[in-house]
Design goal:
305 residues; alpha+beta; SH3 type barrels; endopeptidase fold (from Nostoc punctiforme); 2 domains; 4-stranded antiparallel β-sheet; 5 helices; elongated
Length: 305
């Protein structure tokens, strides 16, 4: 039996998932208010809210345990969830299996993905390395952003790391999620579900200002506005008028006139390559329909319950 329930009553803070029933169990990820849960059984541990000792074992969107107090069940001491038909898991020591995906330490069960994100450190790395010589065999924008985020404290995982290699003859560094735009975005969304996304339309490009942007955010460009991201850059500063400035590695052109452009700092709507606006229909690599999405990474570090 599986119940479908929803996170509620967190005041917008979200609900922490634990690797076992109770507050002493390590936390893994935090689920946003309204997140749908699949619940397969109930156990009992720390009482939350002064009244509710029930802890729910969930199988999605990620395996683990959550405090029933912040889920929209109808638990009461006179009408427990077991009485309502939800099976009891057993004792509070019963824990779900540790996923073998690199997101947990296999020995301790402690998550490896709940590290803080130092935005300034990520931006500083980007500024220091933006003019490094790039690998001409693949567009390096995603590899550049991945390295900046690791410098900012986000931990590498089995799916997203710089120690593996891939491609023909394994000549490309890191995992696919560390070097390919769409795979990077998919990994970001699944690993940090509280990350917010702000769509930047053609009007936003004309306005230039992005009040939501902060240093350390990621801007994903869609050159043709076809819902397929093509390029990444990291916000390194906010100029006057809420205008984000970014650093990046760009697609290199080995022709003499267009090689090794300095991408260490540019306005997010400006082409450093052509010294004109990205929407300019007359520039050499014209992208008049360009749009983008701002990713504001949220990497929670301490449980609130």
């Amino acid at each position: 039996m599986t119940w479908t329930q929803y996170v509620t009553g967190t005041g917008g803070d979200g609900l922490w998932v634990h690797s076992g029933a109770g507050l002493s169990a390590p936390t893994t990820v935090v689920l946003a208010e309204g997140t749908e849960l699949s619940v397969d059984c109930v156990s009992y541990a720390d009482t939350i809210g002064g009244t509710d000792p029930a802890w729910l074992h969930i199988t999605s969107p990620t395996p683990g345990w959550v405090a029933d107090f912040y889920v929209d069940t109808l638990w009461s001491s006179d009408n427990t969830l077991v009485q309502q038909g939800l099976p009891e898991c057993g004792t509070s020591s019963e824990q779900p299996a540790i996923p073998d995906d690199g997101s947990y330490d296999s020995g301790t069960g402690v998550p490896t993905i709940s590290a803080p994100y130092d935005r300034d450190a990520a931006a500083q790395w980007a500024l220091e390395h933006a003019t490094d010589v790039q690998n001409v065999f693949f567009p390096g924008c995603t590899w550049f952003v991945s390295q900046a985020l690791w410098a900012g404290g986000l931990p590498q995982t089995e799916q997203w790391n710089g120690s593996d290699s891939h491609g023909r003859l394994n000549h490309l560094p890191g995992t696919v999620a560390a070097t390919a735009v769409d795979d990077f975005i998919d990994n970001l969304r699944s690993t940090y579900p509280l990350t917010t996304e702000t769509y930047l339309s053609a009007d936003a490009f004309r306005a230039n200002a992005v009040p939501e942007a902060e240093v350390g955010d990621i801007i994903a460009y869609d050159w043709d506005d076809n819902s397929d991201f093509d390029h990444l850059a990291i916000v390194t500063s906010i100029a006057e008028g809420s205008y984000p400035e970014v650093a990046e590695w760009g697609t290199t052109d080995l022709s003499e006139a267009r090689a090794w452009i300095d991408y260490s700092s540019r306005g997010w709507t400006w082409s450093a390559l052509d010294q004109t606006w990205l929407q300019d229909p007359d520039r050499e690599d014209a992208t008049p329909g360009v749009t983008a999405t701002l990713f504001h990474i949220e990497a929670p570090t301490a449980p609130t319950f």
